[in-house]
């Protein structure tokens, strides 16, 4: 089973865990409803759409309300540190949580107690905490954008807000940044880097570059990084190798974006609608996808 | 007796070998419970005209999503009194001599024609240039980002709450920098 862990932007939203449904532009969990706007609800929505296409069970969600004060995140960290060791998941995607190194470490301890180690994916705040903890190598996939990649590449930076001046956030620096992140052991087994060109890399270097279809407006649309992580998580859950899942997710996300004919004012829920069509096309059109696009 | 010996030792040391020129300690940092309190204190202190800076903490007190305020030590008492008066005192004040982390201060602009996007660190803010309505907020990984987007998208720059007022994290602070830069350019 795929577990997706994150927050929703409502401080009164209680800690809930359970199956997640998607109807129109809302996700449903334990009788509660959340708009698919961006953040973890967008990741969940894209994962659900992907699971439907793949005909596999949908994700289990662990959600709590947090608007940045951190109390919700801490209650979720605490809950996970108690229960994860007894759970049985194939894949876990950690997402928007207040970065907190101590709590991150407790959650990772709990993961180590699991009978079977799941594939671990980290994005957003949890990825920041994972890097800060010095244990990035415990993860199978990080999904940074370029600002976050610069943070991974800067061994001194505790947050993307503080990357040092010589670590330039420029598209043409991405190969150097990837290399630097691996040199300092601040990258997961695979990196999926989201940008004008998307990259999949491992410690050996860049394994795939995808740059089409290309929609300039996608960069401005909040949540498009969340959807690519959601698609990748569900593909990995289906048994696809991490590298291939990352590449297919990038391609599907770009294609879905292109189908939505986006402008910088497009909202991510409009793109989520096109994920099944994009995935169908990609998965059925090129079954030898990994061979074709491997660098 | 022991104290006297200690003072004598210092005196001897000063007389015989001048202390090496170390870094000048004239700045201190205020450490707060959370980023929201830092952001609030920054607003109050800047309004009063003090020469303060929001910076990153030294490694020994980092926990993951932190800001501190660098102050001139000479103003410590006045600054602490001001913050206590408004009910926003720091947890502690620590003198600093080593360089602190500088927040990212470069902005990147992307002009889409009708829309303009400004990026500060990992946060992006996009507006419709004709109406000045905020159409998207993207990037970031702290939990106030979806909340900030929810509260700001669809409102004009003049109507939308400033990220510094309702944000609580470094991502919120970075978005505020993008927001201020956007206002400066519009």
What does the secondary structure layout of this molecule look like, with pairings?
The complex is a heterodimer of chains A (295) and B (186).
Chain A: E1 2-8, E2 16-23, E3 26-29, E4 32-35, H1 40-54, E5 60-65, H2 71-83, E6 91-94, H3 101-112, E7 119-122, H4 124-132, E8 141-142, H5 146-153, H6 174-183, E9 190-193, E10 198-202, E11 205-210, H7 224-237, H8 242-259, H9 268-272, H10 275-285, H11 289-293
Parallel strand pairs in A: 1-5, 1-6, 6-7, 7-8, 8-9
Antiparallel strand pairs in A: 2-3, 2-5, 3-4, 9-10, 10-11
Chain B: H1 2-16, E1 27-31, H2 35-47, E2 53-55, E3 68-72, H3 76-85, E4 92-96, E5 107-111, E6 115-120, E7 123-128, E8 134-139, H4 144-152, H5 163-166, H6 170-185
Antiparallel strand pairs in B: 1-3, 1-4, 2-3, 5-6, 6-7, 7-8
Summarize this structure briefly:
The complex is a heterodimer of chains A (295) and B (186). By secondary structure, chain A is α/β, with parallel strands linked by helices.
CATH level 1 class label of chain A? Alpha Beta
Secondary structural class of chain A: alpha/beta
Q: What topology, given as strand order, has the largest sheet of chain B?
A: 2-3-1-4
- The ordered H/E elements of chain A are EEEEHEHEHEHEHHEEEHHHHH
CATH class of the largest domain in chain B: Alpha Beta
Strand order of the largest sheet of chain A: 4-3-2-5-1-6-7-8-9-10-11
């Amino acid at each position: 089973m795929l577990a997706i862990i994150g927050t929703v932007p409502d401080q009164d939203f209680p800690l809930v865990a359970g199956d997640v449904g998607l109807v129109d532009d809302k996700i449903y969990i334990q009788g509660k409803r959340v708009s698919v706007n961006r953040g973890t609800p967008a990741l969940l929505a894209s994962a659900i759409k992907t699971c439907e296409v793949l005909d596999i069970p949908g994700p289990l969600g662990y959600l709590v309300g947090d608007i940045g004060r951190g109390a919700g995140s801490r209650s979720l960290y605490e809950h996970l540190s108690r229960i994860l060791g007894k759970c049985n998941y194939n894949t876990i995607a950690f997402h928007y949580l207040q970065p907190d190194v101590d709590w991150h470490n407790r959650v990772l301890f709990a993961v180590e107690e699991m009978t079977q180690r799941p594939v671990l994916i980290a994005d957003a705040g949890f990825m920041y905490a994972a890097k800060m903890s010095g244990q990035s190598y415990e993860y199978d996939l990080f999904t940074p954008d370029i600002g976050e990649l610069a943070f991974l590449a800067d061994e001194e930076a505790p947050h993307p807000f503080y990357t040092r001046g010589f670590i330039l956030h420029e598209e043409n620096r991405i190969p150097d940044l990837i290399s630097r992140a691996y040199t300092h052991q601040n990258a997961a087994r695979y990196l999926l880097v989201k940008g004008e060109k998307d990259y999949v890399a491992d410690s050996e270097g860049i394994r795939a570059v995808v740059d089409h279809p290309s929609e300039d407006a996608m960069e401005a649309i909040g949540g498009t990084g969340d959807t690519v992580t959601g698609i990748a998580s569900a593909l990995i859950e289906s048994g696809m190798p991490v590298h291939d899942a990352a590449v297919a997710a990038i391609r599907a996300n770009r294609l879905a974006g292109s189908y939505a004919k986006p402008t910088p004012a497009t909202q991510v829920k409009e793109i989520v609608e096109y994920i099944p069509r994009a995935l169908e096309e990609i998965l059925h059109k090129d079954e030898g996808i990994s061979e074709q696009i491997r660098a | 007796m022991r104290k006297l010996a200690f003072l004598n030792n210092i005196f001897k040391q000063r007389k015989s070998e001048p202390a090496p020129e170390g870094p000048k300690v004239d700045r201190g940092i205020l450490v707060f419970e959370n980023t929201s309190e830092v952001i609030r204190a920054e607003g109050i202190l800047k309004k009063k005209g003090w020469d303060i800076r929001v910076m990153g903490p030294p490694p020994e007190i980092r926990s993951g999503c932190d800001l501190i305020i660098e102050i001139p030590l000479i103003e410590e008492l006045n600054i602490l009194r001001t913050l206590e008066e408004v009910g926003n005192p720091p947890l502690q004040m620590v003198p600093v001599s080593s360089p602190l982390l500088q927040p990212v201060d470069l902005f990147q602009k992307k002009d889409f024609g009708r829309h303009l996007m400004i990026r500060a660190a990992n946060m992006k803010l996009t507006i419709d240039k004709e109406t000045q309505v905020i159409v998207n907020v993207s990037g970031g990984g702290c939990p106030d980002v979806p909340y900030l987007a929810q509260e700001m998208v669809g409102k004009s720059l003049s109507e939308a709450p400033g990220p510094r007022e309702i944000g609580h994290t470094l991502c919120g602070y970075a978005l505020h920098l993008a927001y201020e830069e956007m206002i400066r350019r519009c």
